Amino acid sequence: MNFDWISYLLPALCCFFMIGTVILAAIMGYLSSQKRDAAWQELAARNGLRFEPGGMFSYPSLSGLYRGHNLWLRNIRRTHGKKHARTYTRLVLSLNNRANIRFGLYDEDIFSGVIKALGVQDVRTGDETVDERFMIKSQPETFAPSLFASASLRERLLRVKPMNLTLEGNELVFEQNGMLTDTEQLQFLFDLLVDVADRVERG
After folding, report:
1. Which helix H or strand E contains 142, and what residues bound it?
2. Are 122 and 135 contacting, i.e. CB atoms less than 8 angstroms apart?
3. Residue % of the chain over a pLDDT of 70
4. Is the backbone peptide bond immediately before 140 cis, with ω within 30 degrees of 0?
């Protein structure tokens, strides 16, 4: 008798569990979005930037002129495989890359296998801590060691975890998995990217 009741109730319990999981995920997503919007609005007000609220099918964005560079902050959705998708925070800074420098900085354990498979050479800086931590691509190769020669830039770049920073053309792009909502962390990234951009512009 007990077995019959369990067999009868099990599908309904599974259904309720699945519905509860979906509702909980929706609530957590909503709370994360509210926290992000509040943080980004604070950043906009602090730095004279423009906050654009998102809609039902779009993410909010932050943009404007920051320390002489056009800046964009937004979330993007990227699919991994057929079904799995992740949200990333993407920060883009414009610059004048007159020397046509190309640069990429990634955590060694995350991106090195993919990059090396594409035949991209890992540039060494001669700094043991930097070379163990990062996978670096740099054209010209002398740019990466010169970037880390700055004690301030070296210390701040090593603080960023995980690291995914690329320079292609006239855009410096930083990406990190998830929604970044810490205003001080984002302010830190704004200033770091501007200082890297200024170093690029000096050639």
Report:
1. none
2. yes
3. 75
4. yes
Beta bridge pairs of residue 73: 62, 91
Number of continuous H segments (helices) and E segments (strands) in the chain: 6, 8
Sequence-distant (≥ 6) Cβ neighbours of residue 111 within 8 angstroms: 135, 164
pTM of the model: 0.80
Q: Which sign does the torsion angle of CA 29, 30, 31, 33 carry?
A: positive
Nearest to 105 by CA among 87, 125, 77: 125
Tens-digit pLDDT profile for residues 2-19: 455 566 566 666 666 666
| C-alpha R_g of the chain | 22
Report d(CA 49, CA 56) in Å as an integer: 23
* Residue 1: predicted pLDDT: 44
Longest dimension (CA), the chain: 81
> Rounded to whole angstroms, how far apart are CA atoms 144 and 122?
11
**Beta strand 84-94 pairing with 171-177:** antiparallel
How far is Cα 30 from Cα 12, in angstroms, rounded to an integer? 27
Give the separation between CA 105 and CA 102, rounded to whole angstroms: 11
